[in-house]
Amino acid sequence: MRLFLSALAVSIIMITSVAHAAEVTAGDLVIEQAWARATTLSAKTGATYLAVRNTGSQPDRILFIETPVAGNAVAHQTRQEGDVSRMSETGPLSISPGGTLEMKPGAMHIMLMELSGGLKVGQQFPLTITFEKAGKVEVPVKIGKPGAMGSE
Ligand SMILES: [Cu+2]
């Protein structure tokens, strides 16, 4: 019995780690490690990070980003100017063939604006990305700790 239980525990752990590494495929694109930083309940803005891998032979572009948790979502780039970090819109992002578009804290991110109720640790929300060629894709975004630096 004890042996059976520990075998069960091992398989549960394996299932969890597979779920954690969830990736979404759309045509030639693989979207992975989608996560967001938790915010306070009254926060109006938040940031989401993810990676898009292009396994095809043609470039693709992100046209729109939308989510039910925010009134507006746009790709931003953070630049460090002395002691000040500034963000600006990136415009349409392209993913070159064989390349990966990687977003992370302090660099590129998806800015969520007009948040409807804050982002809570441990919860998840859908993000819909429309690509020029791969079309519309819904990606589940996990919410990590407020100061988290990655999807772990
Ligand atoms: Cu931003």
Automatic annotation (TrEMBL):
Q: Which UniProt keywords apply?
A: Signal
User: Quick one: signal sequence residues?
Assistant: 1-21
Which InterPro entries does the entry link to?
LpqE-like, Lxx211020-like, PCuAC_sf
**Pfam families in the record:** PCuAC
| Domain of life of the organism encoding this protein | Bacteria
Gene3D superfamilies to which the protein is assigned, alphabetical = PCu(A)C copper chaperone
Report whether Transmembrane helix shows up as a keyword of the record: no
Annotated region (Disordered), positions in chain: 78-99
Name of the protein described by the UniProt record:
Copper chaperone PCu(A)C
Q: Which organism is it from?
A: Skermanella aerolata
